[in-house]
Structures are given as structure tokens and as C-alpha cells.
Amino acid sequence: MQTRVTVLDESRPLEPQLRHAADTLRRGGLVAFPTETVYGLGANALDRQAVLNIFAAKGRPADNPLIAHIASFEGLHRLTDEVDARAQKLAEAFWPGPLTMIFTRRAQVPAELSAGMDTVAVRMPSHPAARALISLAGVPVAAPSANLSGRPSPTCGRYVQEDLMGRVDEIVIDGDCAVGIESTVLSFSGPEPIILRPGAVTKEMLEQVIGPVRLHHAATENLKEGEKAASPGMKYKHYAPEAHVILVEGPGFAPFVRDKLNETTAAMCFLETANELPEGAPVFPYASRSDERSQGARIFTLLRDMDKRGFTKVYCEAPEKSGVGLAVYNRLVRAAGFEVIRL
Ligand code: AMP
Ligand code: MG
């Protein structure tokens, strides 16, 4: 398949630059596009065959549902008939933005979008190009991250091209993603709303609007043997480079890792920790210890870099499991296949 690449020029109006991609979506084609979280691989969410083509292009397991992206509340009403009062409040507070909410799926919405579940995940992204593209297409746009299944999510156009050239109709590129990790996923299936995937909209931020919210234990630990995944994405090894990633928790990362670093073994850690390690050692700081948002914006780029630089083993200093740090932890522990060393 011939893939058209469109690099957006910020100095010119967006809509004419996106018209071709919007037509492609409307015709049932696949278009990768930027969002504020990570790049998405989009298709018309109401077109069953287009949705199936997303799974094929990514090599995504058919039981891992997709998020439908909308540009207005009209889009939400094409996907669900029931909007919980709490969801309404959260939408007013955090949409457009990195929050996905789970609703009851309308019968007209293809079951394949939701991997057969009777619910549908919906998000209104804030990225101007994403909003313009979805508006122009005039349909909700199903879009998982624009990577081959299992690999780190792409936070810049180059990584989308690496994974998807020749597999999709069009790739729209517009610089680096500001948030860098996928959206928070929130479900209302129980008495208390539950975070299925932590993201940049934190538990504390949600609670300020609707009161107590629970965090699913799979956010930080592996599902138990035989446990059913509330969100199928929970059960897969995810976000992983080729290199063997080991997450290291607790104080004393620098002394622990110092003697292990060499041509094939690297460290990813906080800036402060990097300063404790020898100059010239393969040490890749992801951000300052307290700057969780920058950590989020950097981790996927760094994970991809590890393979490019030829490292086969990476020790990774674990972030705090609070605020946005929890989301960063969640991605890293999956990249590590839940291999954690506690110091
Ligand atoms: P991705 O778009 O690749 O970042 O993955 C979407 C995430 O949302 C996965 O973890 C899915 O399991 C989750 N998800 C999507 N739809 C639903 C749903 N209807 N119920 C629960 N989780 C969902
Ligand atoms: Mg993904």
C-alpha cells in the first residue's frame, strides 16, 4: 500500500491541509494523526470494515477494544444513548483533553470497535489537528495508538512512519505530542467510578469534580492468574522496546546500577540520579524527579531510543506512584513485563 505523508505547516490554515485525510477517513481508509497524548491510527468508528482494518494494520489482538474520538457532543450521542451525570460533569471539566470514558454502546455502533463488549470508550482530544480532522470527517474516529501492537506508543511522526509506512493510507504529522502517554480510561460500571488506565488526568483531578474514584489494581500490578480484565488492554505486555527492561524501585538506584552499565546495558533515570553516575556512562535521564509531566512526555521516546542505540538491557528508575507519576509507572511496569527489583 502506498502511504501518503502530510506534514502540517502551522503557519497555514489547518483545514485545507487536512481535507484529503478527512476524505480518506470518510471513504473507510486508515489515517494516522497527532493527538496531545500519542499519535493515533484512525478509521471511521461507524464503519465495521474500516475498524477491522485498524486491527489488521497494527497486528492488534481482536479482543482489545478501540477508543472512539469525537470533536463535539454530537459525536458522543452517535455512540451512546446514556450519559451518566458524573460523565457529563467530567466531560465539562476535562474535554477536550486526555480523558477517555466508557459508555453503553448504541446498537448501531459496530461491536468490533469494542471487541464485542456492550460498552464503548470515547474521548474528545484537544490537539487542534485532531479536532479539525475529526470535524471535517464528520464521523467519530476510532483510534488506538499508531504503533505496531506491543511496541512503545509513538510520540512523534518519525515513529509512526517507522511502524506504519505501507500499512495505512495516510500519515498526518505535526511535531511531538505534548502529553506523551495515553489517556486516562475511566469506567462507571461499578458503584464507584474506576480508573482502568491512569493518565495525565489524575485520580485527584477526577475526585475534585465527582468525589471518590477507585484505581484498578491492574494499574500497578499484573492481573492475577485467571482474572478477567475489566479493560482488555490490561492483560497484554505493552509499550516494550526489543531491549529487556527492568524497573527498579526504592532508594539507591545510582549505586545499584553503577557497575552494571556497559555497551549493551543502559540506565533510564531522573536527572538528579544521572548526576550521581559517571560522565560518559550510558545514562538517559527522563526528567527531573518532581516533574512528572515531563517524565510522561519523554518515556516512550527514550524506550524507542534504547533499541536504536543498540542496548539490549535497560534498568529504569521507577517514578513515584502518585499524580501523573502513577501513569508513568503504569507504562514502565508494562514495558518491563512486570519485572521489578525493589531496593
Ligand atoms: P489504545 O487506544 O491502544 O491506547 O488502547 C485503548 C485502551 O482502552 C485499552 O487499554 C483498552 O482495553 C481500553 N478500552 C477501550 N474500550 C474499552 C471498553 N469498552 N471497556 C474497557 N476498556 C476499554
Ligand atoms: Mg496502544
Outline the secondary-structure elements.
Blueprint: E1 4-7, H1 14-26, E2 31-33, E3 40-44, H2 48-58, E4 67-69, H3 73-79, H4 85-94, E5 99-104, E6 119-123, H5 128-137, E7 141-142, H6 157-164, E8 170-173, E9 184-187, E10 194-197, H7 203-210, E11 214-215, E12 244-249, H8 253-257, E13 265-270, H9 271-274, E14 283-287, H10 292-308, E15 313-317, H11 324-335, E16 340-342
Parallel strand pairs: 1-8, 2-8, 4-6, 5-9, 10-11, 12-15, 12-16, 13-14, 13-15
Antiparallel strand pairs: 2-3, 3-7, 4-7, 5-6, 9-10
The structure holds adenosine monophosphate and magnesium ion.
Strand order of the largest sheet: 1-8-2-3-7-4-6-5-9-10-11
Percent helix among the residues? 25-40%
Q: Which quaternary structure do these chains form?
A: single chain
Sheet having the most strands:
11 strands, mixed
Bound molecules: adenosine monophosphate, magnesium ion
| H-E string | EHEEHEHHEEHEHEEEHEEHEHEHEHE
**Rg, Å, rounded:** 20 Å
Low-confidence stretches: none
Report the structural category.
alpha/beta
Coarse morphology = globular
- The total beta strand count reads 16
Report the total helices.
Answer: 11
